[in-house]
Design a protein that fits this description.
By secondary structure, the protein is of the alpha/beta class. Among the domains are: about 50 residues; about 200 residues, Rossmann fold, CATH 3.40.50; about 90 residues, Orthogonal Bundle (Helix Hairpins), CATH 1.10.287. About 50% of the residues lie in helices and about 20% in strands. It contains 20 helices and 18 strands. The strands form 4 sheets. A 6-stranded mixed β-sheet has the order 5-6-7-3-8-9, with helices on both faces. Strands 14-15-16-12-17-18 form a 6-stranded mixed β-sheet, with helices on both faces. Strand 1 and strand 2 form a beta hairpin. Helix 3 runs antiparallel to helix 4 and helix 9 runs antiparallel to helix 10. The chain is globular. The two termini are about 40 Å apart. GO terms for molecular function: ATP binding; ATP hydrolysis activity; DNA binding. This is ABC-F family ATP-binding cassette domain-containing protein. Keywords: ATP-binding, Coiled coil, Nucleotide-binding, Repeat. Pfam families: ABC_tran, ABC_tran_CTD, ABC_tran_Xtn. InterPro entries: AAA+_ATPase (IPR003593), ABC_tran_C (IPR032524), ABC_tran_Xtn (IPR032781), ABC_transporter-like_ATP-bd (IPR003439), ABC_transporter-like_CS (IPR017871), ABCF_ATPase (IPR051309), P-loop_NTPase (IPR027417), Val-tRNA_synth_C_sf (IPR037118).
Amino acid sequence: MILSCKNICKAFVTHTVLDNVNFWLEKGDKAAIVGINGAGKSTLFKIITNELEADSGQVIINSLTKLGYLSQNSTLSSEKTIYDEMLLTCKEIIQMENTLREYEVKMSKLDNDSEALDSLMKSYSNLQHTFELNNGYSYKSNIKGVLKGLGFNEEDFTANISTLSGGQKTRVALAKILLEKPDILLLDEPTNHLDIKACEWLEGFLCNYQGTVIIISHDRYFLDKIVNKVIEIENTQSHIYNGNYSFYIKHKAMNQDIEIKHYVEQQKEIKRQEEVIRELRSHGRDKLIKRAQSREKQLQKINMIDKPTLINDKMNLKLSPRVISGNDVLTATDVSKSFDNKHLFSNLNFQIKRGEKVALIGDNGTGKTTLFRIISNGLTGDTGTISLGAKVNTGYYDQEHTTLNGDNDLIEEISDAYPNMNTGHIRNTLAAFLFTGDDVFKKISSLSGGEKGRLILAKLMLSNANFLLLDEPTNHLDIISKEILESAIKNYTGTVLFISHDRYFINKIATRVLELTPNKLNNYLGNYSYVIEKKQEEEKQRLLELENSINNKKQEDTPIATSNKQDWLKSKDEQANKRKLNNQIKKIETDIHEIENNIKTIDEKLCLEEIYTNAEKAETLLNEKTHYENELENLYEKWEELLG
C-alpha cells in the first residue's frame, strides 16, 4: 500500500464536503476520482498534498514517498526558457555527467601515475554505472519526447516561459511534473489544454508509468484508457469500483437498481406491517393491542434504507428545428486560408447533408476554428466558396457564454429572446434541460459552466436554427452536463457540425468525422473509434507492404533450393500453429459458456425475495457476478485476438 485515506472529513462554513471518505491504493495503481462539480474532488487532492487540513481522519503516506501535483489552474512562473526549466528535473543526472567529464580530463593527465589513475578509473567506472542505471544518456531525449508529446515544437523550446499563454504554462507545468517521475502523481484535469494527439500521447505515457497515478478528469475516454480503479465522491461519501470508467458506469447502475429494489421492498413491508397494526388495534381487544404494540417495536428496530438519490440525466424529448432545411445543408468548394504567410489549409472540398452529426477534428493550429468562422461568415476564405442550402439557418454554440445576460433569471432569458412564448412553454423547455422547480428563478450569473451550456443549447433549440455549429461544446462541463448535452444533440433532428477533442463525446454523437491535417481533409464515415480502426488498418497495410518489400528483396538473393526447403518448413510450422490455435479457441469458448451459465445463475438468485431483501447476501452475489464479468470480458478479448 502506497497511500491510504482513512475517515477523511471536511466541512466548510455552509456545508459538509467530505464525510468519512475511505480508500487505499497500491504502488502502480491508476485511479480516477469522479463526482459532480462541487463534490469535493479537488478538496480531497489538497488534503492529500497538505494544502488543506482535514477536520478529522488521516492520510497515510510514507515520508520518503515523493508526490507530484498538477492543480486545475497550475501555471509555471519562471524567467527561464522551456527547455532550461525542464533541465531542473535532471539536476542529479547533470551533476553526474559533469563529474564524469571532470574525471575524463583528470585521467588524461595521469599517464605517469598508475596508482592514482587506477583509483580514478575505479571511481569513474562506478559513477558511470550509476549514471547508466539512471538513464543518464537519455535524459535529453526524454525531455524532448515529453515536450513534443504535449504539443510543443522544437522551436518552442527556447521560448521564455513568462511570454507563454496560460494554457501553454499549464502544459509546461505538466511536462515538468512528468519528468520528475514522482512516486504518486496527482493530476487535476490534465487534458484541459491538450488536443487529441497530445491526449493520446499522455494516455500512453501514464499507462506505462511505473508509479501511482490519481486523476480528476471529465474526459471519459481518457479515464477509460488509463484507470484500473474509480473512486466516486457522491453526497460526501466515497464508493470504490475496481475497473475503468465504463466498468464504473455499468456497475453503478447495477448498484442503483439493487438499492432501489431494496428500498421499494422495505417500503412495501413497512406499509404491510402498518396495515396489520391498524387492523389489530381496530378490534380493541387487549390481546390484539399487545400484538400490535409488539409489531410496532419491531418496526422501530428496522434499519431504514435511505431513499436512493438519482440524477435524471436522460432526455427522451425529440428535439426538432422549427424550420426544416433542404437535403444539402453545406457545400465547401476549394476553400483555402493563410495568415501572415502561415498556411492553414487549401482546396478543402466537402458536403454536409441534413440530419448529419459531423465532428471536425485535427491538431491544434490546423485551422478548425478558422474554418468555422468562414462557415459562419465571420471570416472570408482566401479562395473557394461556402454555400448554405435552401432554408438553412445556422446557430452558434458559444462556449464562453457571452450571449447570456447575467442579470436575468432563466425564464427572463428565454422570454427576452422569445417574447411571444408563454411561461408554461418556457418552463417545459427548461425542464427538458433539467431546470426544474426553483432552478428557473436562478440568476444566470450564479449558474455553473455546465448549467450555462445547457441554457444556451435550450435557446438554440427554440430558435429558427436548423444547422448548429458547436465549437468545443463540452469544454469545462462536468460529466453529467456532458451526458445531458449528448442526449439533447442525439435527439435533435437538425444538422450539427462540431469541433471537439472529447473523444467519448465524438463517439456518442458523430455519424461522420472530418479530420483537418496540414495537407488534406480526411473523411471517415463513422465515429472516433472508427477513425482509430481505419488508421490502424492503414498502418498495418503500410507495415505489410514494407515487410513484403523486404521479403521480396531477400528472395531475390536466396537460392531456389533453400527457398523450397524454407517453404516446406514454414508450411509445417503453420499447420502445427493452426492446430494449437484451434485448441486454444475451443478451450476459451468452453470457459466462456461456463462463466455465462454462472452469471445467469447469479441473476436468477438476485431475483429471489430471500436474497434481494438481504443486503449482505445480495452484495456477496453482486461481487461474485462482478468477478465473473471481468473474467468473461478478458476471455472475450483473448477469443477475439485469436480469431484475428
